[in-house]
Amino acid sequence: MTAKLSHEEISSALQDLAGWQLVQGRVEKTFAFDSYAQGVAFAVKVALLAEKTDHHPDSLEITWGKVRVAYVTHSAGGVTRKDLEAAAQVDALV
Predict the structure, then answer these.
(1) What is the DSSP secondary structure assignment for residue 91, as one 8-state letter?
(2) Phi, psi values for residue 42, rounded to 5°
(3) Which of 94, 46, 92, 93 is nearest to 71 (CA)?
(4) CA angle 8, 10, 15 (to 5 degrees)
(5) What is the pLDDT of residues 45-58, one digit of tens each?
(6) Per-residue pLDDT tens over the stretch 21-30
(7) 3-state helix, strand, coil in the chain (%, to 5)
(8) pTM for this one?
(9) Across the chain, where does the E strand assignment appear?
């Protein structure tokens, strides 16, 4: 099992992940798009990445022109390195 990171470790790592924030015990970011369809297409890419890496977002919320992605590892009781790696991989999809 991957170990839960401290608040300090998460804060330090988030400095390298533009736009990602620690919100209510999970790391999350909202991505903006010019249309609903573009947001849905991005969400599908996130879903396929999750299946490939076997690490799924805690939340994947689609609204018009926006997609919010959030990660936390429930089995570890908080944010882990795996969540931060997933965040970086999601950024690479844009």
Answers:
(1) H
(2) -65, -45
(3) 46
(4) 100
(5) 999 999 999 999 99
(6) 999 999 999 9
(7) 45, 25, 35
(8) 0.93
(9) 21-23, 26-32, 59-63, 66-71
**Tokens at 22, concatenated:** 């620690």
* Angle, helix 81-91 to helix 36-53, in steps of 10 degrees: 140
Mention every residue, 6+ apart, whose C-beta is less than 8 A from residue 27.
Answer: 10, 14, 17, 20, 21, 70, 71, 72, 79, 83, 84, 87
Nearest CA among 16, 14, 12, 5 for reference residue 73: 5
Residue 82, both tokens: 């795996």
CA gap 37, 40 in Å, rounded: 5
Instruction: Provide, rounded to the nearest whole percent, the portion of the chain with pLDDT above 70.
Output: 99
3-class DSSP state for residue 69?
A: strand
Q: Where are the alpha helices (DSSP H) in the chain?
A: 7-14, 36-53, 81-91
Q: How far is CA 4 from the centre of its chain?
A: 16
